[in-house]
Structure formats: structure tokens, C-alpha cells
């Protein structure tokens, strides 16, 4: 569980280009080794009897570069401006793909890319350009197309349907976990001692428990992220985002872009636009916010969007606000945490006023990372909102339910049974879990030191660029073991997932890059409950993100990946 990196400062447009260059060169610097995308092992994440030895031969053929999971926070260092690059690999090294890109005429690619850039510009598939000083503050200034894949990524229909099917179960799970304050406090008690940010969140949670604060109306807008492991053919969960689940607006647009391109070029590409599933994420998220606003029952109240001071991904958020206004006649206001501290006021009846306006729903697109709290002002604002009667999306308990440590705790034997009643639902959820372990497990830690390429270390941090890979895993574990401190409580270990690799075209800064890529599927979910009545519990569209396979981190808004859609196979 965790949060998307969507609100990180965008590194999406590091160069300005005024034409569409499309030339060809040979790509030899990154992928010269055989890209065997098989996972070195498969196992039951709840079992300690992991058959590592039986997979050592497979390990010898594993890629030297990480083709990993872990929140899609990878750093891309392989894209070169101004070139359409070829790929140099051995025959059979790349997984089956929906399209033989080597056979695509370069002139056709150039036509498709040009039309895609025009469509993106006309339909609001946009982000702020980091080279424009005010692009994160003033709408309409310094806009550039969001990075996207030129064509959709193939994905098995049965796996997609399964991910959609479990979304309402995960929604219900988050709600039930959020109601167990003791479980949250106990599970994070050791983390609290070594992680100041988690400690501050837990302090707010404790204060709400002390005053017996009840959230009669509970709203969750979630996104569960998965990768399809090539060796086991299992769809494994990377994390469940419960705060600031980004890109409902732009992901819906990318789906429409790809459908439009296949309507025009599908015959030449031998692809059918109807194979791209519909994506109504922004409409359904807006519907959930509107229903929560209605349940609050104050027609003069607004939805408060808590935003970062500089937000180059603002257009994804503005799409949601626009749909809320046009379809539901609900007004939104945008404020930073610091502004809420200055302009916010709590009335005796619990009503939250910001700039004199009553707030029905607080929708967080900030507040999930320590950098969002540079002073006590921001913490005061968070506490003020939590104390109010406004519907919080998420509440502090929903936020904590999405931490990586809670994800790891839920993967333990018999823990899901504490929160879910239906045995079939439990089995479906457990099937999604990758291997997750506490650093208290000495056997797993020893194996991770021996084979660090099979693991990822994940701290209680969100927003991208925080995970630890490869030799750094070994070095960090050895340091923690030598020091013998409680710092190990700040991390969990997660199984490395090895997804299949496919050639694809990536569009960034008006330039088309041809490269090997892997993808991560995110399934949105919306949950709204008033006391005992579940008003909404739905799967709400999807987000596909694609990144160059030779890098570790991959958040779109952090500049590491591109937005994509799905072509069902």
C-alpha cells in the first residue's frame, strides 16, 4: 500500500522542442544483455518455506538490469532527445507483443505521432513544463503534452478482469482496517520510533481516538497497482494507494487518444479499437465526490482540493474539478496546507470554514510525503481538517491503512480473516499478494543479503525515488544488522517482480522513443459509506503506466514513465 508519485515535481519536460524529430539510430548502451524476463522464483508470500534453491539455475539467466515492481518509482536514463531509437537484443529475448514494431513503416509512425500530439494538445492531455517558471502555479502557462505511449500495451483480458473484480474487496478491506485503531497503532508502533513522519500521522490518529472522533461518512478513492509476473503468470499487487490516487483525468484521456488513433490507423496496424476497454475513472471519481458532498447535506458547501504549492500535474486535478462542476454542479476550491492553516477555521459544531466557505469534502492531492510539511503550519492544517465534520478523502485512518507496513501486516497468515468474512474474497485478495516481509525475519534478511536482486527494500515513504535495489539492498541490510538499531522497523522487504518486456514507442517532449518497456496496471476504486449504509463500492477505471525496462523507478509525474492504456488479448 502507499501513494502514487503523481504529485511529485514533474520532470516531464526537461527540453523544449518546436518540431517533431524522428530519426533512427542503434540503441546499444543499455540493453545488450539477453533480456530473459522470467521471475527467478515463485512462492506463497505467507510461507516461510520458500524454495529458493530450486530456482538458482533460473537466476543465472535473470537480467542484470531491474525489471521491477515497487510503486513505479524508477529513474529513466535511457531516453535520448531527438531520436527514434532501435533496439539491439538477441532473438527471443523479448516477450510476445501485440505488434511487430520492427515492421512498422517509419513514415507511418511519424504520422501517428504527429496526430497524437495534436490530439493531446486539443483535448487537455497536458502537464506543466518544468522549464516554464510559473507552470506549476498558473493554469495555462507553460503547458506541454503529458508523456504517453504511442500505442496501447497488450494485457491478458482474464487478468484485467480479475484485477477489476477484486477492487471492491480492497475498498471494503481498507474501510474495515481503518476502523481498527488498535491494529493500526500496534502495527506501526515500531515504525513510529524511527520514522518522524509516520509518528506525526499516528499522533493525529491517536488524538482522534482519544476524543472518540467518528467518521460517519467515509470516502475512499483508491488505486491498486499490479504487475504481471512473467514466470508465474500471476498478477501481483505492488501497493494500494489510499491518498492522492492520481491520474483519473489524464488516464481517461490516454484511453480516448489510443482509441482515436486505432480508429484511424487500426487497419494499417491490424489492431481493433474495440479491444481497448473503456475508462471512466474521472467521471466515477467525480460521482463519488459528488455523492459524498450530497450526504454532507449543505448545498452551500464546497469540495476543498488540498494541493501542493507547485503542481505541474494540476490539469489531471482540474479535469476532476471540471467534471464535478459540469455534471454535478459542485464547486471546488484549491488550497495548500499552509493556506488552510492561515484561512481555516473550525466552528463549534465541527464545520470547517476555509476563506469563509463551508467545506463538505476535503480531497487530498497533497499531504502524503514529508516535504508537504515543511513547518508546523502544515501539521496544524492537517489536524484542523481531521477534527472537522467535513468528509475526508482520505481520513487519517484511511491514510494509515495505505502504508507499506500495513500492507506487509495484512499479508501475514490469518490477518485478512480478521477483517474479511467471505472465504472466497480472502482467497482472491491473498492471491494478489507478492512476497512481503518484516526485517525482523532473520531468514529472509539473510537470503536478501545473499541474493539482493530478488528483493526491494521499501521505506515508509511515498512520492517516488525512495526504494532500495540491488547491491544497495545488501549494503543497507548489512549496515542495519551491524548497528543493531531499530531503524530496520522503517523498512519492509518485498519480492522483486519480473514482468514481461515489450518493444514500444514512448512520446515525451514531442519526441518518439523506441525502446524496451514494462508496464504497471492500476485499478481505481471508489468507496462511500454513511454509518452502516454502503452508498458506493465500485471499480472505477484504470491507469496503465509504461517505463523503459532498464530502470528502477518509474512515476509518471516524477518524470520516469509514460501514461498508457490497455489492448486486451
Describe the structure.
There is one protein chain. The chain has 569 residues and is of the alpha/beta class. 33% of the residues lie in helices and 22% in strands. The strands form 6 sheets. Strands 1, 6, 8, 9, 19, 20, 21 and 22 form an 8-stranded mixed beta sheet that branches. Strands 10, 11, 12, 13, 14 and 15 form a 6-stranded mixed beta sheet that branches. It has a 3-stranded antiparallel beta sheet with strand order 16-18-17, sandwiched between helices. Strand 12 (344-346) and strand 13 form a beta hairpin. It is globular.
Number of helices: 16
State the low-pLDDT regions, or none: 1-97
DSSP, total strands: 23
Strand content: 15-25%
Taking the sheet with the most strands, its summary is: 8 strands, mixed
- Percent range of helical residues: 25-40%
Radius of gyration: 23 Å
- In angstroms, what separates the terminal alpha carbons? 28 Å
Overall structural class, as computed from helix and strand content, comes to alpha/beta
What would the average pLDDT be, to the nearest integer?
Answer: 83
> How would the global form be characterised?
globular
List keywords for this structure.
single chain, six-stranded mixed sheet, alpha/beta
Amino acid at each position: 500500500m502507499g501513494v502514487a508519485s503523481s504529485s511529485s515535481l514533474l520532470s516531464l519536460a526537461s527540453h523544449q522542442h518546436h518540431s517533431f524529430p524522428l530519426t533512427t539510430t542503434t540503441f546499444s548502451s543499455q540493453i545488450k544483455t539477453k533480456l530473459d524476463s522470467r521471475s527467478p522464483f515463485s512462492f506463497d508470500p505467507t510461507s516461510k518455506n520458500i524454495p529458493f534453491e530450486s530456482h538458482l539455475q533460473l537466476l543465472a539467466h535473470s537480467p542484470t538490469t531491474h525489471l521491477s515492481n515497487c510503486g513505479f518509482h524508477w529513474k529513466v536514463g535511457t531516453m535520448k532527445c531527438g531520436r527514434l531509437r532501435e533496439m539491439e537484443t538477441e532473438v527471443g529475448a523479448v516477450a510476445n507483443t501485440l505488434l511487430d514494431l520492427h515492421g512498422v513503416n517509419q513514415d507511418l509512425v511519424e504520422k501517428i505521432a504527429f496526430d497524437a500530439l495534436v490530439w493531446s494538445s486539443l483535448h487537455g492531455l497536458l502537464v506543466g513544463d518544468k522549464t516554464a517558471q510559473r507552470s506549476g502555479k498558473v493554469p495555462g502557462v507553460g503547458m506541454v503534452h503529458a508523456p504517453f505511449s504511442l500505442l496501447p500495451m497488450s494485457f491478458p483480458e482474464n487478468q484485467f478482469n480479475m484485477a477489476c473484480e477484486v477492487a471492491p474487496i480492497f475498498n471494503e478491506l481498507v474501510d474495515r482496517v481503518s476502523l481498527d485503531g488498535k491494529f493500526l497503532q500496534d502495527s506501526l508502533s515500531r515504525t513510529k520510533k524511527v520514522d518522524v513522519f509516520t509518528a506525526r500521522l499516528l499522533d493525529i490518529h491517536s488524538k482522534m481516538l482519544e476524543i472518540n472522533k467518528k467518521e460517519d461518512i467515509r470516502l475512499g478513492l483508491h488505486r491498486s497497482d499490479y504487475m504481471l509476473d512473467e514466470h508465474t503468470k500471476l498478477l501481483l499487487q505492488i501497493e494500494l494507494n489510499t491518498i492522492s490516487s492520481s491520474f483519473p483525468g489524464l488516464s481517461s484521456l490516454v484511453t480516448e487518444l489510443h482509441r482515436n488513433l486505432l480508429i484511424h490507423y487500426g487497419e494499417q496496424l491490424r489492431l481493433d479499437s474495440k479491444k481497448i476497454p473503456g475508462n471512466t475513472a474521472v467521471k466515477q471519481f467525480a460521482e463519488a465526490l459528488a455523492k459524498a458532498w450530497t450526504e454532507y447535506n449543505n448545498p452551500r458547501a464546497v469540495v476543498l482540493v488540498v494541493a501542493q504549492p507547485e503542481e505541474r500535474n494540476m490539469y489531471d486535478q482540474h479535469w476532476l474539478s471540471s467534471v464535478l462542476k459540469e455534471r454535478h454542479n459542485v464547486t471546488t476550491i484549491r488550497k495548500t496546507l499552509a493556506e488552510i492553516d492561515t484561512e481555516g477555521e473550525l466552528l463549534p459544531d465541527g464545520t470547517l470554514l476555509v476563506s469563509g466557505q463551508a467545506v463538505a469534502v476535503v480531497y487530498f492531492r497533497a499531504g502524503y510525503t514529508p516535504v508537504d510539511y515543511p513547518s508546523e503550519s502544515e501539521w496544524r492544517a492537517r489536524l484542523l481538517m481531521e477534527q472537522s465534520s467535513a468528509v475526508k478523502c482520505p481520513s487519517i485512518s484511511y491514510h494509515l491503512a495505505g502504508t507499506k507496513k500495513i500492507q506487509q501486516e495484512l499479508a501475514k497468515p490469518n490477518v485478512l480473516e480478521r477483517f474479511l468474512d467471505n472465504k472466497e474474497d480472502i482467497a482472491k485478495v491473498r492471491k494478489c499478494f507478492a512476497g512481503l516481509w518484516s526485517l525482523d525475519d532473520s531468514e529472509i534478511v539473510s537470503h536478501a543479503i545473499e541474493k539482493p536482486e530478488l528483493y526491494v527494500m521499501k521505506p515508509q515513504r511515498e512520492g517516488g525515488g525512495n526504494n532500495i535495489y540491488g547491491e544497495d539492498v545488501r549494503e543497507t541490510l548489512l549496515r542495519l544488522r551491524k548497528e543493531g538499531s531499530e531503524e530496520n522497523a522503517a523498512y519492509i522487504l518485498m519480492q522483486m517482480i519480473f514482468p514481461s518486456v515489450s518493444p514500444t514507442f514512448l512520446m515525451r517532449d514531442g519526441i518518439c522513443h523506441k525502446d524496451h518497456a514494462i508496464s504497471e496496471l492500476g485499478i481505481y476504486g471508489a468507496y462511500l459509506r454513511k454509518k452502516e449504509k454502503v452508498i458506493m463500492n465500485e471499480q472505477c477505471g484504470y491507469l496503465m503506466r509504461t517505463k523503459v525496462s532498464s530502470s528502477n523507478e518509474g512515476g509518471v509525474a516524477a518524470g520516469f514513465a509514460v501514461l498508457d492504456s490497455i489492448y486486451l488479448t
